[in-house]
Amino acid sequence: MLILVALTAGGFLLQGIALLMIARRFKAAATRRQKVLDDLERRADQLMAQAGLLFDSLKPLSVAAKSVSENVSEMVEIARRRTDEIDSFLQEVTEAVRCQAGKVDYIVTDTVQKFEQISSTIQRDILAPAMEIASIVRGIRTGFDYLFSRKRSTHLRPVSQDEEMFI
Question: What was the pLDDT predicted at 135?
Answer without folding.
Answer: 93
